[in-house]
Amino acid sequence: MSGIDRRTVLKGSLGVAAASALARPALAKGQTIKVWWNQGFYPAEDAAFRALVKDWEQASGNRVELTLLPGQALNEKIISALTSGDVPDVMYADNAPAQIVPQNAWKGRLVDVSDIVEKVKSSLSPTAIQSAQFYNAEEKKRGYYGVPFKGATLNIPVWKSLIEKAGYKMSDVPKTWDKFFAFFEPVQDKLRKKHMRHTYGLGYTLSTTGDDPNNTFNQLLVGYGGGGIVSPDGQLHTKDPKVRKAVIDTLNSMAVPFKKGYVPPSALNWGDPDNNNAFHAKEIVMTPNDTISISVAVMDNKKWYYDEIATLQLPLDNDGKQVPALLGVELAFIPKGAKNIEAGKDFISYLVQPKHLGSYLREAKGRWLPVMPEIVHNDPYWLDAKDPHRPPAVRQGVLGPTLTWFYVFNPAYAQVDAEHVFSVAAADIINGMSPDQAVDKAFSRMEAIFSQYQIPHQA
Amino acid sequence: MSATTAGAAPTIKAPRKRIKPFALALELLVCVVILIWTLMPLYSMIEVALEHQDQVFSGVLWPANPTMANFWKVLGQGYWYIAHFWHEMGNSLYIGISTSILTLIIGTMTSFVIGRLRIRHAWIVSNAALLTYTIPMAFLAIPFYRVMQIYGLSDHLWAVTLVEVTFATPYAIFIFQQYGTSIPIQLDEAARIDGATPWQIYWRVYLPLMAPAMVAVGTYALLLAWNEYLYLFLLLSSPDKMTVPVALGRFLNSDEAPWNLMMATAVIYALPPVIIYYLFRRHMSSGLTMGGVKG
Amino acid sequence: MDATVGTTTLGDAAAARGGIRRRLFGEGPHGSDLNWALAFLVPYVAVFLLFVLYPVGYALWLGHHPESYRELFNDPIYLKTIVNTLVYLALGVNLHLFGALMLSGFFTRTNWRVRSLFLVYILPWAVPAIPTFIAIHWMLNGEWGFLNNLLYAVFGIDGPSWLNYRWLALFSSVGAYIWKWMPFWTVIFLAGRMAIPQELYEAADMDGAVGIKRFVHVTFPLLANLYLVCTLLSTIWTLGDFNTIYFVTGGGPALSTHVLATLGFRDAFEVDNPQLGMAAVLSALPLLIPLVVILMRKLAKTEVQI
Predict the structure, then answer these.
(1) ipTM of the modeled complex
(2) Cα dihedral across residues C15, C17, C23, C27: positive or negative
(3) In angstroms, how far apart are the furthest CA atoms of chain B?
(4) What is the pTM of this model?
(5) By the CB < 8 Å criterion, does C74 face chain A?
(6) Which domain holds residue A88?
(7) Any chain A CB within 8 A of the CB of C270?
(8) Taking CB atoms and an 8 Å limit, are C253 and A418 in contact across chains?
(9) pLDDT by residue (tens digit) across C156-170?
(10) Is residue A11 situated within a structural domain?
(11) Yes or no, beta carbons of B27 and C109 under 8 Å apart
(12) B230 — contact with chain A (CB < 8 Å)?
């Protein structure tokens, strides 16, 4: 190779290597993509994302117009965009996998991103992979309509200090399902004897607004064996007696303590921040909550974070077996009609390279779980024994058995959650309806909703 | 009676009343009731705004250690949600004031035509304006999103102003029409005799007499824009176009939201319109002590 | 037409103007006036064509699918929602307008106490809805909310769990709504009162009509039209109000305090079915259209009378 020096060859071969790493023809430069991204929970998280954006801009020679908005607002903006057809290139919102992606994948409004997912498939957990496949009713098959990058499961923060104040030790906490939750009732009784008039043992959110009620109900349902309520092929199994029993048990497990006075009465109208507020004000001893945000929110209060609050994993089921945790997987997705699909795909590919993803999620103070086990194994941050909250969440949500959310299998379940069908059922039982009646009412509404989203078997 | 008696200090003017004790007591009672009614929710906001971070939900009636620190933090942009508070306030003011001015201009011009120039089919305009209200503002989100994209106005502050003006103007027209029925048409006619063009009548006769209604409608338009939330993040995307309500919405995004800061921001945000209203308030007292008796 | 021609024409017609004007009532008097009128109308017509026709048309089109309505009527909470909406309208609109009317009279007083109170009184209107209604939501919390703490401290009674019962929650929302919007209407009625010529009050005083009599015989007849227009408009606007219920009760407990606006919002943005959401609000058209028609008739009567 006369006339060409080694550096040129080196550059050339690096270029070829880079291009083949991306496994696509070289991306054109000078484009601008529009990215709509959910606001982070900490400034460091947003800063980390912006840094990632800048890195990609330099690496690809393109620009990003970034819009960071809070979740509910972003939902409305995304839905307006998808309905009207004037869409950005890349989108991610916390609630989108539960409220936007299933319906829009169904209608064929999202771009298939199998090419991105395939490249990182070996790094992704099986649940994450399954959580990205949605049914497209126009093509009558499932496809990858989002790229998974982070997830969350239901954790149970508890006030160690209150448990100890009631005269118990953390080792007294039972390991199996019913006994675990029942434990908080005598805790409340003892605390009441110590003049804590307004403290309640169980902080279940029983309202019909926000995500907490659905996160709580569905996970408790899985704990009682009802995880088969919707099968991966999108079929509803309300006629299955095991499912029916599980639903009744779950509803009772919430309604009965409420009637006995162990759940704050206002839980019937809690918005999403309300259980967090109640917990921080020590008005409830425990509250199921997705992610470890309740603990991380008070990270600066060392006494609380390290000594007084503990994050417990889900207990074992009544037979002593481990309960899979429903893993809410967050997705980056691309709408059809986006002006720069290739560049958008390139950006998402950059995001989900394990080392970029790992540092981005670490900046979020570990509030979100990686969907790639290798990140957790390679970085000691995630299982740092000195932190009392992150390792339990990671062990449960990344290393332990996880389950895909039901709305991935069929958009009808997304509507069931949005209508809070089961919270209504719990409230009905509290108001005196028999559990069987309440479940019949809930099931008939579910069946009506599912009748609009019929997926042929074998899909 | 004609306009010329306006200036003469009426000798028939009622003597300044001394308030009887009973009437005074009654007035004070009403004042107290209104004060409690108005302040209770505001108080619960201010109470939170005066708390320290970890005592926000201590459930007390008055903070154990009240602190003005949160207010200073907002004004000093000391938290990431409000890191651009002043810029966002500037945007809010820009949208609010431009909405107000544009609504006043378009509203008075239109009601002038309908009410004063007596064009035969002018009522069509006011009836058509009512079409604006058949669908609530919140549900026109998707259509307006599309419209602004089509007109190339997306991510411009003017997009929001125009939406607000669209919703404020019909109401402005109605109020001006209602109010204008009390202004005798003879005033217009007198001006015509003096050779005034419609523009001059509008500018020199109509507008000054409409002053109280203009203050009311101007405040209404300002506060319509001030109370907006949905369209601010729907039509705007870049960080430099964000406004205070969107900043407030950020607090709802997080579980660790410092509610004391949110309430402090909200209280501060409420003040500019009240100040603006206060500055214009003297125009609220009527210029209509003159003029014919309305039938 | 240039000004001199116009002036000359005006000058000639001035003498006979009284009679001619009556006969020409309602007709565009002069060509130049018509041009002026059109010029003055251009801004609003532009706004209307650009920003009302297309958006409203698009919205109506979003809501035109019959299956949306079938789905809507099959929603188990639809009937309850309609009842809630009617109660919300009946109470919310009438109470806060009536209160505004009464208070607008109070606020015509010119002493410093009342004037400074007025500035505090309009704060609810200026304070942003979302944090305020969230604060009200907390205030009404049964266990640790401000209201119950106050009741306990002052009267020693344990207040109810305000938001746990359908009707208490709904009335609380109505209260919050009145609290926020009554100041706005008060300002409008205050302006309306300013339009009443002082001589009328003086004449009434002479006849001995004071206080309530004065209100009934002088003030209210003159404000009646304004009051009716405001009632109709407030009804239309309250139909579309979702912030209050959304943040104060969240539609709960158990979806029992939804109104059409919040139901439509949930269907559009949480179930992600904008057509269904639009159908929810449009299903109020049978109530809305008569209101709009009455309003149109009322407004047609507000031509200037001599």
Answers:
(1) 0.86
(2) positive
(3) 72
(4) 0.88
(5) yes
(6) 21-152+327-404
(7) yes
(8) no
(9) 888 899 999 999 999
(10) no
(11) yes
(12) yes
